[in-house]
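Predict structure. Chain length: 201.
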Amino acid sequence: MKFIFGIGNPGAKYEATRHNIGYMVLNAISKGSKWVVDDRLMSGTGLTKSFVIKRPDSILVQPQLRYQIFVNNSGDVVAEIINKYKTEPKDILVVCDDVNLAFGKLRLRESGSAGGHHGLESIIQSLGSDDFPRLRIGVGNDKMPKDLTSFVLEEFTAEEKKDLNKVLEKAVLVCEAWEKEGFGSAQGCLSRYQSAKEKGE
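Prediction complete.
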């Protein structure tokens, strides 16, 4: 079984912010299916209260904790789920925002460092490994302030919102290619998207 983790902050206050684009992608994949609490994760430490949707080839996960520990502590949830389901890091895909990428640009990596993203740092630390795929979605722009903490907790600009659904659609295609056929297929899907975008198609 594969797992797709879309990381973000719980609660209506953060729902439409840049930091929550991981949640947004999973909502787009789910196509309106009902998110439920995974009862298998309520034992043990009792910390996890993640919302999941089970699909034929994967489980979608929006990591949350009972005490609403946010993006920067996503690793606690990811590690607990991996341990409960006895899965391997290579069988998870983490979807997150990236302020170092221009809005709408997607970057897929099979492994690697956190690149300054505290949520990824938390996951790497909790797993003791950086050997897991991640899809970064650009949320940056040329008007970013020096205080990136407040920037990622803001909503997208009016111009960005016009293109947000298209970005989510492309991210969904990449995630579903990974889910069904693996990393190589997902990379090919992303390459075709980036090429088409550069050509203005």
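Summary: The first helix runs from residue 21 to 30.
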